Amino acid sequence: MNRSPLLLRLLVAAALFLTLSALCLRNYYPPLAYPLTVDLVLDRGTVGQSEPLIVSGRELSGDFLVVQYLDPTHVIFAYDSWGHPGRFSPTPITITPGTPLRLRIEMPALNQLRGHFADPPGPIRVTCDGVTVLDIADHYFIREPTEIWLARNPLGGSACGPHLRGRLLALDGRELRGDPTQFFTYRERLAGWLTHSRHVFAVSLLCSAVVFGWLPLAWFHPNSLRARAQAARHALAHHRWFVGVTALSAVLFAGMITNGTFRFLQTEELATFYDYQMASLLDGHLDVPDEAIGGEAFVFAGKIYGYFGPTPALLRLPFVLFGFAFGELSRSYMVAYFVAALVATYLIFLHARQRIGGSGNPSPIAVILLVGHVALGSTLFFLASRAYVFHEAILCGATFALFSCYFSLRHLAAGSAGAWRWALLCGLLSLHARPPTGLFALTFLGCVSVAHLIYHLRSRAVAALPRHLGIGALCILGVLTFNGLSYLKFKTFDGAPLRYSRPYGPERLAHIEGKSFHFANLPYGFYSYFIRPHFRVEPKFPWLYLGSTHPAPEFPAAKLDLPDHTLAIPWSMPGLFFLSTLGCAAAFFTHPAARGAIVVTWAAVLPMSVALCAAIATAQRYTGDWIPFLVGAAALGLAALETASPRLRLALRALLFGCTLAASLLTFALTLHYQRETVWGVPEEFRQSYQNLRTRLTP
């Protein structure tokens, strides 16, 4: 490392540090001291008069610490969380007008900020001149950094008046009144940023990457940028049909998930969990505040947890570090997962064609039939009906499972060292986003290892056996990490201990014997996911609806908890089902080179299928867990179809085009109606616009 490049990197890093620090400080305000010690100076008051000391939150979601006059010289303190009964100190305090009372205040509003919260707070406690006058445990709301006011109440409500007639004084004599922008000095903001903010870590890491060459400056040289841009344009032109289909599909997916507004940064109910989870991980613990998970929480040892895996939370790391768009990222991430899933689908198809002997770019028809079906005619598009934690988990899990399958197929073909490592990593990320998809991905890699073991045993290549045995063992350990994470939360290896779940009371638990899976559910699950045409046609837009008018067979032995409407895969995704079954069968007999991949794909889906069919709940969104399998198998089937005779290929393409079109229309209808009529949390204005549209199209 010679001196000139090092000096340049140091100068760039220093400039970058100063610039990013200034940007971070522009909107940064530290949490208040906890506990907060202030002097309260009061004047004589009137009976029943209540005045604000500390107010936090927003209208309908605010917390109030107030002082209330019993008579002109006696006061009590009270705490009121909006929508909950107020709590009052039992002993009156005698005041001398103009004489300060030394208060020591402990309340969640002081340090429970959105995006950064300390350990769960203790009681709400007020000490006056060394005597504890209020000591309670009560509800609280998480606030934004600037949503706190001293000696003022801008929220309204009935807890207190608009302002404190007396004064709140800091220990240095400064009067504290208003929000953080008014009582924090720039020096205090800088000191708080350096000692409390995670931004410092992020900025320092980025600057270190420049200094030590982890982020080479040559990457940003104009010639390097032009070369990469030219290479990207060439690649896009080379695969223009895939780019076109993906771009159109992404626009339609984005339009659906944003209700046609294309606002990608938006807070939605039960869509902030992953941001809170990442914030808690940065603070060194796994529990989250109540606001993060609410009615879906698992409560253990007085702490609140989610049963959702941490992968989507980990991907939010840079945004949580820099405090950007906290709780507003689910829509953006789901669009990114959707596009990434289509990229993985295309890569799998290219690999399948190569395995079967195809050369050159795939035909436009083949790209439309596979990528278009996955994009617009599968459960991936249905997940656009709502950007909340359930749908994001499935879409994230399916995306990483697709990439894991791609790398596993490469490992199966070439046995390359890098491919299996990427397959394992993507499988782990899938598992900790959505366990069924992760189980499939890791089972897929495990089956590839078994295939290699069989091959090497037959060829007597004993030296290669330990490596593939090790990969198989890592797959098993990878699956067990799900149970290990559960143990860290709940001290049990049960991945979802329902006895700790808020929605599950004794009667509900007794009905399912406290278990999430029962072998008695297998017939019902198989019928729901693979046989039942559970939809109906009505004369009103959108004409196709989830839920059949014909009763289903009874399964008296099943122990079900949430048997939601579910349309079986052959009906909801007919093209993918046809290619993954009959197409795979044809490929197996006509292309011996594809047999290993076909056997591995079908063997890997069995454990996941048994688990999903044995589960106590069914839902249309759960069919998305089969997408990685369907894509892998369908890609092999379509690659074989493309090698058929011209006449047969034309007939099969016409059949598949009809299946793709039908699946796309059906998926759009089910998604739109589910979003605007069935699923909770969608704004009323969008529901009403949907009803108006139905009336206009089918009066």
The largest sheet is: 6 strands, antiparallel
Radius of gyration: 30 Å
Number of domains: 3
Extended strand count: 19
Globally, the shape reads globular
The proportion of strand residues reads: 5-15%
What's the end-to-end separation, in Å? 76 Å
Percent helix, as a range, is 40-55%
Question: How would you describe what is shown here?
Answer:
This protein is α+β, with helices and mostly antiparallel strands and 699 residues long. The protein has three domains: 3-28 and 193-218; 36-183, Jelly Rolls, CATH 2.60.120; 248-265 and 332-386 and 395-693, no CATH class. It is 52% helix and 12% strand. Strand 2 (50-58) and strand 3 (61-71) form a beta hairpin. It is globular, with a radius of gyration of 30 Å. The termini are far apart.
Topology, please?
Blueprint: H1 3-26, E1 36-41, E2 50-58, E3 61-71, E4 74-81, E5 87-88, E6 93-94, E7 101-106, E8 112-113, E9 116-117, E10 124-128, E11 131-136, E12 148-150, E13 167-169, H2 180-183, H3 186-196, H4 199-211, H5 222-238, H6 240-257, H7 273-282, H8 290-293, E14 298-300, E15 303-305, H9 311-314, H10 317-322, H11 330-356, H12 364-376, H13 379-382, H14 389-414, H15 417-431, H16 435-458, H17 465-490, H18 506-511, H19 522-530, E16 535-537, E17 544-546, E18 562-563, H20 569-572, H21 574-590, H22 595-614, E19 617-618, H23 627-641, H24 646-678, H25 684-697
Parallel strand pairs: 18-19
Antiparallel strand pairs: 1-7, 1-13, 2-3, 2-12, 3-4, 4-5, 4-6, 7-10, 8-9, 10-11, 14-15, 16-17
Helix pairs in contact: 1-4, 6-11, 6-12, 11-12, 11-14, 11-23, 12-24, 14-15, 14-16, 14-23, 15-16, 15-17, 16-17, 16-22, 19-22, 21-23, 21-24, 22-23, 24-25
